Amino acid sequence: MRVPLSWINDYVDIEDISPRDYAAALTMSGSMVERIECRGDNIINVVTGRILKIKRHPDADKLVVCEVDVGGETVQIVTGATNMKEGDCVAVAKDGATLPDKKIKKGMLRGVESFGMMCSEDELGLTKERAEGIMILPPDTPLGVDIRDYLELNENIAEFEITSNRPDCLSVIGLARETAVTFGRGFSVKTPKVTESGGDIKDFISVEVLDPDLCPRYCCRVVKNVRIAPSPAWMKKRLEDSGVRSINNIVDITNYVMLEYGQPMHAFDLKTLEGGKIIVRRAAEGERMTTLDGEKRELDTDTLVIADGRRPVALAGIMGGENSEIQDTTATILFESANFNGISVRASAKKAGLRTESSARFEKGLDINLAPAALDRACELVCELGAGEIVSGVIDVCAPIPQKKEIAFDPDYINKFLGTDIDREFMENALTALEFEVREKSVVVPSFRADIEGGADLAEEIARLYGYNKIPSTLYIGAATLGGKSEKQRAEDLIRDTLTSLGFYEIITYSFVSPKIYDKLNLPKDDYIEIANPLGEEQSIMRTTAIGSALEALAVNYNHRNENVSLFELATTYKKGGEKGLAIEKQEIVIAMYGDDTDYYSIKGAVEQLFESFGINNYDIEPESNNPVFHPGQTAVISLRRKRAAVLGRIHPSVLKNFEINKQAYVAVIDFDLLLECKKLEKKYKPLPKYPAVTRDLALVVPDDVNVRSIEDIVKKVKSDITESFSLFDVYKGKQVEEGFKSVAYSLTFRALDRTLTDDEVNSVMDKILSELKQKLNAKLRL
Amino acid sequence: MKDRLIKIKEQASAALQNITSKQELESFRIEFLGKKGCLTEALRSMGGLSAEERPAIGKLVNDVRSFIEAEIETLSDRLDKEELLKKLEQEKIDITMPGKKRPLGKRHPLTTVLDELTDIFIGMGFTIAEGPEIELDYYNFEALNIPKGHPARDTQDTFYINDSVLLRTQTSPVQIRVMENNKPPIKIIAPGRVYRSDAVDATHSPLFHQIEGLVVDKGITMGDLKGTLDAFCKKLYGESIKTRFRPHHFPFTEPSCELDISCPACNGSGCRVCKDEGWIEILGAGMVHPKVLEICGIDSSVYSGFAFGIGLERTVMRRFGIDDLRLFYENDLRFLRQF
Questions:
Q1: A694-781 is classed in which CATH architecture?
Q2: For site-directed labelling of B186, which of A26, A156, B193, B297 has its Cα 20 to 30 A away?
Q3: Which helix (H) or strand (E) holds A350?
């Protein structure tokens, strides 16, 4: 909310307070001042002047040379503007002047000296739109006057951020009250005086409220002999400083009162109200009206309207209708000042996609007592401006006004809650200044403070006036709590530690994706969770797999020509079927990579090392040839406890093409929960061996389709106390190996804990191994 | 004979002067001490000497031998040293050439800073709680004192799955879940993803991260809230940082506040980073609203508590001077490598 400080000053004297101090104090007492703006601050050395002569520029068709009188001094200015004539008064930025967006220095324009600039409205920061040509001032403008004084640009305007619980502060009076309390100064609001000029309102209009639940109060007055005219300068300026466009005296009065009192108002052209009636009712289903913004709207029964005898003439609390708008010829008006149900206004405004200054105030819940006061203030202004005559009488259709709330007031509780030692007197004074009525053990809450409901609310009122920063900081000493991470959170750390030390970068991706991701992955559509109101199709469903996100990250890097890319994500996926209609949220570890030396075994190595870091050394691995995302010959599934723990392999070329990655990419997806379930993190020390090991090489020729895993399984199964380890060191196909076969070479290590092994002992195990391999895999010793 | 030996010694001394390499030294050794060397030959010819002469000549032979051996050793040592020096000289390299790096991955900057924040709170005795991202309207709004039709709902543009299920707009629903399932004392933080239907630009993202904090026990005061968050800020931003608690409004806390720190870039004197304010807002907090405690079945006349919420992205952006939120979710290595 924008408020010129001089308006606040009408209610509480703040002339001696600097704008900076004012902003700081109000911010700390709860009315956040985002900035104080003074339009004149950025305009220096700009004065009024009169163009004496306009000459052609000797060397440029589109420029002219002007002689400008800036008050006893004539300066030469070259300009490209065309909208001025000799004798016009203008705003002249002299040599060395500052404007909001630029500094002005004398210079040469096509060989002719120019000592300044004649300003347009946007150059002075008076409008945001680009102005056509320079600003022409009235012919009687005195010359050489600082433009800030001439245009009254020295007003300090405070921009408040008002929180949704304080609709009372969406008004000059409300903020003046806060100002007064903050600085401990006097504050008073005069009761408006309405000079009635006879007649009876009942002869003009009758009001019927059919839905008092949505409209607890409807007040109105009639003004006759209306003279529609522009508002006086002071009112225009206040409105403009507050960010409201001036229209005419009547519309301006409604806006002025809304800003001052926080009570939205509306003016109807009485002549247009059919049947001399106002009916406040829910719209009929499908009923139509055109609002003041020119939009045709179809209404439904949830929307409250102000209707005349025949049709809606306003969306209650939101916007008036075109059919009852004030015209230049309007002679009689109806001023409406009503109280509408906030929730209903909010819902209707949302449905209409129409949030106005009025609806923004109503939806927060306004004081029911505000309506008649604001109405009288508007009529007082009508008299003051000579804009019309007030017909005697006021119509006030009002549901029973709720009693003011009385809540317990317990200074001890407040001090305990805040951790302070504030005396009762301070509390009483603060609350009284805020217009609470303080009693022995309770306070009566002013009707404009619907947000105050209990002790905690009172504590906040006291605390903000006492000063949050004066509350002593203490460290809570309660029951000692053992802080720390859960097993799952530690496992997440371990995954990050392991994978980053292996050279993988962690990524974080969006949880929502496009439904097209399944096509890109060659997958059938999953039964995913859809967002009802997504930002766009690209982000419209919750992902059921994070592979697509990882491939997208690879694609981003591929596009940016990053050559070797290794990424991982601890990604959440979302599937239907959780409790109470929620999702099953599961984490998966996605590893994705491409690069120069990257192949299937790179991704497999990473998965193995990750498993090892979880103490998992044994697992089943099977080829998977029918996974549409992956290459049929370079993909495996790893199982733990007979459950699918990971899929890993090379991405299918057609999927890569869909993601526009022109490199072989490898991805692994690991089930986080299963990894966690199978982890063996307890570590036990094994004594270091005292006796030497014996190493033997074993070179075999096996049929091509035998995978090394089956060889290793057999080696493992051969009973032996001395086989310590074995490792594959060569696989060879080609010359010297028969077609359809391959050569596989292992290095085996044998050791006993209590003695040095003899050749015989080792040979006997080697023989057993070989014979098993011969028998089960048709392996031959390579000679 | 004696003369011959003296001559050998003189010859050896002279020869040694000209030796410049180990190879020459070895030839020298063979020439004088080898099986066919001149000293050996001299020794052989001792057979022709008388018994009286023998001991004296024998001693002389030995002296000459010892002399030559000692000279060889000294020279050998010297040559070794010279050779080593030469070798070392030859092995000189350009120590400014780039080092050979092992591939190293890194955590995402959001994780790195989150870890730092989490460590601070764990050090203060907090545990880490979690909750679902797809959440019930009840937990995200209603139980937090934001009933349907409440204007505060407008400030959090919400993605809905259906009327009662939504993508959580804040981590605060975790507060409710924790209070429903645990008895005080409660001392948790809950980091996680939250969602708002804001179109993507440099400062908005439909997905971002918050860290929620909640402490509930008997006798918790607003002073405790201040003390805890003061300590947190000092650990995160340094002992010299100043804090300012500014009144604010959240429906689920009362009193509510926002916490500003003195701008680390200008120490509070005003600069571009803090838009000349001297202060930077870093989190929202407040005393848990008694209604919220009651909704969770906690007696608000016995227990009180405080809660706070920190925006992770903004914290990370400030830390590293990042000016575009989108970078966090693009996962470009050129970005990720920097942290």
A1: 2-Layer Sandwich (3.30)
A2: B193
A3: helix A342-352
Task: List all residues of chain B from 69 to 128 with a beta carbon under 8 Å from chain A.
Answer: 102-108, 110-111, 115, 118, 121-128
User: In chain A, where are the structural domains located?
Assistant: 2-39+158-183, 44-150, 201-398, 406-469, 487-678, 694-781
A668: which strand partners? Answer: A591, A648
CATH class entry, domain A406-469 = alpha beta
Of B151, B206, B257, the CB nearest to A535: B206
Other CB atoms within a 10 A radius of the CB of residue A496 amount to 22
- Each residue's pLDDT tens digit, B89-126: 999 999 899 999 888 999 999 999 999 999 999 999 99
Whether complex ipTM tops 0.90: no
Find the CB nearest A510 among B123, B154, B329.
B329
Q: Give the integer Cα–Cα distance in Å for A528 and A520.
A: 16
- The DSSP string of A560-629 is TT--SEEEEEEEEEEES--GGG--EEEEEEEEEEE-TT--HHHHHHHHHHHHHHTT----EEEE----TT
Separation of CA A772 from chain center: 68
Partners of B191 on chain A (C-beta within 8 Å) are none
Name the DSSP letter for residue A120. Answer: P
Cβ neighbours of B6 (radius 10 Å): 12
Instruction: Please give the full DSSP string across B172-214, using - where no structure is assigned.
Output: THHHHHHHHH-PSPEEEEEEEEEE--PPPSSS--SEEEEEEEE
**Is the preceding peptide bond at B109 cis, omega within 30 degrees of 0?**
no
Q: Which residue of A has its CA nearest to B119?
A: A484
DSSP B276: T
Whether B48 and chain A come into contact, CB under 8 Å, resolves to no
DSSP character string of A366-393: --TTHHHHHHHHHHHHHHHHT--EEPS-
